[in-house]
């Protein structure tokens, strides 16, 4: 990086460093990318499955999948600018469907490998030794080795003008989960089947629940469920 970490530490609080917007913009590209990507905390780890209009399957790792709404059931994700070929985005726009597949500790290395820049006529399923599977509802491949799978229909997109990223919104058409992860109140225990998390661009984490708490109300202390 062009800016010394020691400079940031000197300007910060005791035992800490203060890094300003100006500092961040002076970082070398890779350092800046790693730094900013680490700041938002632990993120969901998912493989997005799509298929081209020619029938070639595609698989890509994403850490930007988020809940959008429950009625109707919506889920979203950020796609990087389309200034260079983005096979996932192109396939979603062409076919109207995509799948979201939770990554577990048995497949995290294969999942990470899908981030390599393969040509459009190459399937990441083949290159990364993962298995595509289909249902009658979704015109996109699921990952057989994933334990929690979500099938979506593309409904809308929004351009983030500041950096030309695209926010994709999909409606959930089907969910495939193990029988023992759905609780009586609708909570899906994603930790039970081994879903993992991502921090930064390349750090993978298992999780350990602290507790589930009751619905928060004014002047009432939450209790553990």
TrEMBL record:
<dbReference type="GO" id="GO:0016646">
    <property type="term" value="F:oxidoreductase activity, acting on the CH-NH group of donors, NAD or NADP as acceptor"/>
</dbReference>
<comment type="similarity">
    <text>Belongs to the flavoredoxin family.</text>
</comment>
<dbReference type="InterPro" id="IPR002563">
    <property type="entry name" value="Flavin_Rdtase-like_dom"/>
</dbReference>
<dbReference type="GO" id="GO:0010181">
    <property type="term" value="F:FMN binding"/>
</dbReference>
<keyword id="KW-0285">Flavoprotein</keyword>
<dbReference type="Pfam" id="PF01613">
    <property type="entry name" value="Flavin_Reduct"/>
</dbReference>
<dbReference type="InterPro" id="IPR012349">
    <property type="entry name" value="Split_barrel_FMN-bd"/>
</dbReference>
<keyword id="KW-0288">FMN</keyword>
<feature type="domain" description="Flavin reductase like">
    <location>
        <begin position="39"/>
        <end position="189"/>
    </location>
</feature>
<protein>
    <submittedName>
        <fullName>Flavoprotein</fullName>
    </submittedName>
</protein>
